Amino acid sequence: MAKRIESVNAFVVKFANVNGSGSASANELFAKAILRMGVPVSPRNIFPSNIQGLPTWYEVRVSESGWLGRRGGVDLMVAMNPQTWDQDVKEVDTGGYLFYDNTKPLPQTRFRDDINVIGLPLTEICNQAYTDPRQRQLFKNIIYIGALSALLDMDAGAIAELIGEQYRGKETLLKPNLHALQLGRSYALEHLECPLGIRVKKADNVGDKIFIDGNAAAALGCVYGGATVCAWYPITPSSSLAEAFQKYCAKLRVDKDTGKNRYAIVQGEDELASVGIAVGAGWNGARAFTATSGPGISLMQEFIGLAYFAEIPLVIIDVQRGGPSTGMPTRTQQSDVLTCAYASHGDTKHVLLFPEDPAECFEMAAQALDLAERLQTPVFVMTDLDIGMNQRLCKPFVWDDSRAYDRGKVMTAEMLDAGKEFGRYLDVDGDGVPFRTYPGTHPSKGGYFTRGTSKNAYAIYSEQGEDYEANMQRLLKKFETAKKLVPKPLLSASKEPARFGAIYYGSTSPAMAEALDALSRQGIFVNAVRVRSFPFQDEIFDFVVSHSKVFVIEQNRDAQLKTLLVNDAGINPASLISVLHYDGTPITARFITKEITQVVAALNVRPLKKDKAA
Amino acid sequence: MTYLAKPKLHHPTLPKNKAGFTRRDYEGKVSTLCAGCGHDSISAALIQAFWELDILPHRVAKLSGIGCSSKTPDYFLGNSHGFNTVHGRMPSVLTGANLANRELIYLGVSGDGDSASIGLGQFAHVMRRGVNMTYILENNGVYGLTKGQFSATADKGSKAKRGQVNAEEPVDTVSLALIMGASFVARSFSGDKKQLVPLVKAAIAHQGAAFIDVISPCVAFNNHAGSTKSYEYVREHNEAVNRLDFWPTREAITVDYAEGDVISVPQHDGSIIRLRKTHPEYDPIDKVKALEYVAQHAAKGEVVTGLLYLHSDSEDLHAHLNTVETPFNRLSEKELCPGAGMLEKINAALR
Fold first, then answer.
1. What is the DSSP letter of A468?
2. Domain A212-394 in CATH: superfamily?
3. Predicted local distance difference test score (pLDDT) of residue A362
4. CB-nearest partner of A451 from B84, B92, B351
5. pLDDT tens per residue, range A570-606
6. Scanning every residue of chain B, which has its alpha carbon at the shortest distance from the alpha carbon of A391?
7. Could you confirm whether domain A7-199 is CATH 3.30.70.1250?
């Protein structure tokens, strides 16, 4: 008899399914039901670049402590895909559980002795209950959720409530779903030993948090931030962002009196057209954005340079995936940092924002629209597949109704008539940001010709070296101004004095928080800074120099943020140690903890706790 | 190229249009193109057309790509905003600009390299989308700024200045515009201002994507014997299917022609296009026949000019997208931000 993992409200369930089998909504139902029980969960889709037939996984981490990073390891495998059976069985932690459809018997050799096997004749139950093949497939998913609810001691009421909300007003769908749920639950209660060693117990740790994916959150941020033009080209993992923008706009941006839209969404013929449309709209005074991923960023390079040099507001949301080339289109990475920071030919630098979760995707998308107009430059929101396409528990969205959009320095016809001097590229107040006029402002003043070629402060074509240099220097000054406007880094100080520091950003955040906690329990104390933007503020430099070694945790191969820190913040590379995770899966606390522990051991540093004990 | 800057002072007796501007007010900087360049004649035709239409110069946004042709927006409508964008990508930038403010008049200027080679995709898609614009393609069959390479509109068998013969099939931008859904398609010749000015006026008045391919000889690299884009060749092979008169809104038609030769087509804004047929069998309302006619005559080495196709009830991108009348760039947080109360409801639905 295998040992049994015993754990309440802290375990990982992984569903192995076939893409296109309708499992996604059933699995989401499972995750949400646990949330309704007041227990935080963090689900992740691990999916192929495929429509139908290939394997797909849904991994749910249940954590009463609220750790939302990927944990690693599997306590319960719901093995619904024969194609990946061997791999799935292998992945279960010793003492863990394997749930499978035992309608057809499998030879003993296909199992393991050190895990607990739970068989349930899913196909048989379905075949008895349903005649329609499609129903057999769809309800099979709900039946296993019903069985799991019994095995994990879940509140069946919470699931029924969620099904009720999903099919409100659709009685014909509601009843059979509830019935299927009950079929699975009753069978498990009757025939299986319930509950397992792992189980869910009601708690109160969800509070007022919301559960949403980062792409939808960023789209909503664009609605709140006043974007009226969205131009995009379909690309995983960013497509659902533009689609969410469409959905929210249809609800929130239609003039009630006329039925007309206060938004325009254009699916471009490619990423070049998409960014071009956004640039044109920004030039003409509308707030515009495009959403894309790495290959799209590569295609947009020339336009990004134009927007930088001609100083046109532009927001690009980059939902990063595994590169280079087509790379791993359905896997996560933070590998576009450098390509975005220095996008386009010539000397360029761009403002980057790094949201950690959907709440910040919302905030930073809205903020990016302000920053782009204030600074008259491209602003990148650097999210990734892990935050973008997975629902994540996060703080509720907040908006202050007194907040006005920052439209930046726009010279109006009144200002021109009052005799204000207009030079499109003239720095009038020392912050490096000039005034602009919208096309069509004034019959005789304020018109200018926008170009990607060099020009003087009055937008007149110029190949004079001094004009060019003065302009390039002003752009640097503008980048300094950006430092004061972009979100500050956030410090989390260790509870004991620490020699080590850690720098991290974006979706690494939840795994990092958990790793810091685990490390401190081992007596390794690390102060951490979460970088939220580029250009880097002085606080980051100060943080590095006040620690003997600083770990830089990233989800890419080439230590891209570290390169940027060395290159742009003047940080000594010898003081930085990279911790890099780039296999396409989201980084885990276990990985970070292990890497840092090893380095600390190699540096011969004895943990503080042991010192004290001695 | 003219080296003498024109004096800024206008002669007091210069005639003014109904908007109160002289023709000089529609001019721009001094051209830096070669003396005799067809593109400068097109700029002059544009100046004439905008002046005659009494359009407030600053209410025009002129956008272009990269190349000789794309430099020209600096040489007319000097008080208008212009945007010299990226090679081959004027259409997307213009589309975005148009979405941001539907009240301005949008003029796109491009060349054959810009539109038929690097920008073929954007050219085709802007026609498909029905962006309300006038798209002028200044077509000389050659790359000027990079000194004489064939462009994609160079005819098969035509000869370059240095003697090479073009072996590749040409892109016929007029046929492409027709297929892609442009609702106004014309071809003209930079050397025929009488034909070009009314065509430009009608294109500006047209609601939707209006395309004019203007054969515009390059005096430096493509005006020799063996070229099919030279002044001499185009003059000899020009087959004008019609002559156009454009009558602005509410203006009495003062010229009359014998009935039967003339088609009157009222436009969205009340203006009227009158077509005097020079080829009685040509019907500019029939797209399929227009395609056939252009192809047949191209095979004979003829350059068909005139208004080749007109769909006067066309809708533009704003109509397709059902956008509000107020330009987006005038909408504020009041109209755009759903507010904290709505956000609380959204939060509640995400729990």
1. H
2. Thiamin diphosphate (ThDP)-binding fold, Pyr/PP domains (3.40.50.970)
3. 98
4. B84
5. 999 999 999 999 999 999 999 999 999 999 999 876 6
6. B350
7. no
Q: What is the pLDDT of residue A52?
A: 82
- Taking residues B283-310, what's their average pLDDT? 94
Helix axes B173-180 and B120-129, enclosed angle (nearest 10): 40
Cβ A175 vs Cβ A165: under 8 Å: no
Residue of B nearest to A208 (CA): B351
The number of beta carbons lying within 10 Å of the beta carbon of residue B168 is 10
- Quick one: pLDDT at residue A303? 98
Joined together, the tokens standing for residue A156 give 């069946």
Q: Which tokens go with B243? A: 């002559």
Cα separation of A224 and B160, whole Å? 56
Answer yes or no: are the C-beta atoms of B326 and A189 closer than 8 Å.
no
Domain ranges for chain A:
7-199, 212-394, 413-485, 490-613
Domain A212-394 identical in fold to domain A490-613: yes
Query: Using an 8 Å Cβ cutoff, are B253 and B262 in contact?
Result: no
A384 or B272, which is more confident?
A384
Query: For residues A560 and A337, is the Cβ–Cβ distance under 8 A?
Result: yes
Q: What is the pLDDT at residue B245?
A: 85
Three-state SS string over A373-439 comes to HHHCCEEEEEEEHHHHCCEEEECCCCCCCCCCCCCCCECCHHHHHCCCCCCCCCCCCCCCCCCECCC
Whole-complex ipTM: 0.95
- Whether A190 and chain B come into contact, CB under 8 Å, resolves to no
Degrees, nearest 5: CA angle A313-A319-A325: 105
> What Rg do the C-alpha atoms of chain B give, in angstroms?
21
Instruction: For chain A, positions 417-476, list CB contacts with chain B under 8 A.
Output: 437-444, 447-453, 461
Interface of B with A in 51-70 (CB under 8 A): 56-59, 61, 63
Per-residue pLDDT at B6 exceeds 90: no
* Positive/negative CA dihedral, A579, A580, A586, A590: negative
Least confident of A303-317, A524-538, B301-315: B301-315
What residues does A291 pair with on adjacent strands? A317
Q: Do A224 and B82 touch (CB under 8 A)?
A: no
Q: Sign of dihedral through CA atoms B87, B91, B92, B98?
A: positive
CA-based nearest residue in chain B for residue A405? B333
Domains of chain B (ranges; CATH) run 23-325 (3.40.50.970)
Residue A507 has pLDDT above 80, yes or no: yes
Among A492, A489, A498, which residue's Cα sits nearest to residue A514? A492
CA proximity to A63, closest of A203, A189, A163, A184: A203
β-sheet with A116-120: strand ranges across: A41-46, A55-63, A10-18, A74-79, A92-101, A116-120
Confidence of residue A414 (pLDDT cuts 50, 70, 90): very high
pTM: 0.96
- What pLDDT, on a 0 to 100 scale, did the predictor assign at position B1? 44
Q: Which class would CATH give A490-613? A: alpha beta
**Predicted local distance difference test score (pLDDT) of residue B255:** 57
Q: Which residue has the tokens 């038609």?
A: B253
The DSSP bridge partners found for residue B134 are B107, B210
Q: Let me know: does B305 contact B189? Beta carbons within 8 Å.
A: yes
